[in-house]
Amino acid sequence: MKRSDFSWILFVLRRFNAADTKGRSAVTGILSVLGIAFGVTVLIVILAVMNGFQRSFIDTILQVSSAHVQLYGSADMLEKAKAAGGCQSFYVFSETQTVMQGHFGRQQPAVLRAVPETIKTDDPGFAQTVTVMEGTFDLSVPQSVVLGYELARMLSVSAGDHISLLALAGTADTDIFPEDAECLVAGLIKTGYYAIDSAFAFISTQTGEQLCGKQEVLSAAVKLTNPEADGVYLSFISEHFPDLKCESWRTYNHAFFGALRVEKNTMFMLVFLIFVVVTVNIYNGMRRSIYERREEISVLASLGARKEHIQALFIANGFTIGLLGASIGLVIGLLLSADINRVFLFAEYLVNTVIEAANILLEHTFVSGFSIFSPKYFYIDSVPVRIFFNEVFLVFLFGVFSASFAASVAARKILTFKPAEVLRYE
After folding, report:
1. CA–CA dist 248, 80 (Å, integer)
2. What is the C-alpha to C-alpha distance for residues 70 and 117, in angstroms, rounded to an integer?
3. What are the residues facing 183 on neighbouring strands?
4. HSE toward the beta carbon, residue 388, CA cutoff 13 A
5. Banded pLDDT at 178 (limits 50, 70, 90)
6. 418 exposed, middle or buried (CB, 10 Å; 0-12, 13-18, 19+)?
7. How many whole angstroms separate alpha carbon 102 and alpha carbon 83?
8. 40: which of 67, 72, 101, 313 is 20 to 30 A away, CA to CA?
């Protein structure tokens, strides 16, 4: 295409766009732009919130419970693996099942994990994820324990109270320790992940040996600088320390992470239907616009314009609609995602205001204290948000090119026009 071709195409395109701001074509164009903007906005916000929930859960599991890689073996071999480096943090721990009893005879099963007293300094990721709600995370006091916040609530205990360990599941040599053991609750922690807050308790390595005996096979939690490099680290361990058993986070969290991925893909497909509807609307609107402009198209063809260039006019028009709608949706979506918690608070305020007004007018209390994420049903303090550039960019491109695709399909109608017949009957 020559430069002169671009010049007249851009000139005619500006005239077409100016004409589209008036009359019925303007309504179709505005609806198309708003449809693209709405789809992009909704998809960006949904992905940001869903990524926030998923990544917060995944990060909590990896930082507190699972780590990026777990090694199993003797204490000497684990120390050698630690000295070999190649990781961000490394600490040895042991784990056992127990039944705890708190006040009023309340009993709960729990995972009792024995970790080094210096775990918060040895593992910055663990220290950053865990929030101390009461007391301190100090395991230096003999027979002290740090409980998950929800576990302590179910046992009706707080920092400074004592709990009883009714049973401890040990190794094959020490199946059950029937004698009761008391521990001092040094503090309560919260991670934001209910499965950990309701089932995990931490003691020092020395206390663990006193309660469960010295175990021959220990575990090590390994945190990597890049979690995606777990395969490289596993190969390194297998080559240099064949006696150690190693497991990646992809393996022991496979079912949970797979469920999160399926959930995200399903939501993406549901919101994708918005773009399908908008694309069909743009297609129908463009076909009507081409039919209404058949005289102008015939005149351009009579003056020597190639049908491919005339097609490019309408494709460019669809691209303009997509670009404008996607840009508006991108800005609104990012603004909403960045301040989504305030948006939810504002929505709750509006709903509660309407409910209160209805209660006053009808002199009857229907509902009070509406909350989108009520603590009765959701274990969150605020809605987490994670925005990934590649996903946002993909949504933006999809919004732009869905309109362009619809316009290109509709513009094929131009190839069937016969300018002489159109002008003869006009």
Report:
1. 19
2. 19
3. 163
4. 13
5. very low
6. exposed
7. 41
8. 313
| Tokens read off for 49 | 């919130």
Asked whether 249 and 230 are in contact (CB, 8 A), the reply is yes
Q: How many residues are recorded in the chain?
A: 426
pTM of the model: 0.75
Answer left, alpha or beta for residue 142, where phi above 0 means left and psi between -120 and 50 means alpha: beta
Look at residue 416 and tell me whether its pLDDT is greater than 70: no
In this predicted model, what pLDDT tens digit does every residue of 325-339 receive, in sequence order?
899 999 999 999 988
Around Cβ 196, how many Cβ atoms within 10 Å?
23
Kindly report the backbone phi and psi dihedral angles of residue 141, in degrees, each rounded to the nearest multiple of 5, phi listed first. Answer: -75, 130
Q: What is the DSSP string of 346-408?
A: HHHHHHHHHHHHHHHHHTS----S--TT-TTT---SS------HHHHHHHHHHHHHHHHHHHH
Bridge-based pairing state of the strands 131-135 and 162-168: unpaired
Query: CB within 8 A of 242, min separation 6: which ones?
Result: none
Inter-CA distances, 355 with 345, 366, 373, Å: 15, 8, 17
Compute the mean pLDDT over every residue in the chain, rounded to the nearest whole number: 81
**What's the confidence (pLDDT) of residue 134?**
92
The whole-number average pLDDT for the span 394-400 is 87
Q: What is the pLDDT of residues 202-261, one digit of tens each?
A: 999 999 888 887 888 899 999 998 888 888 999 999 999 988 998 888 887 777 777 777
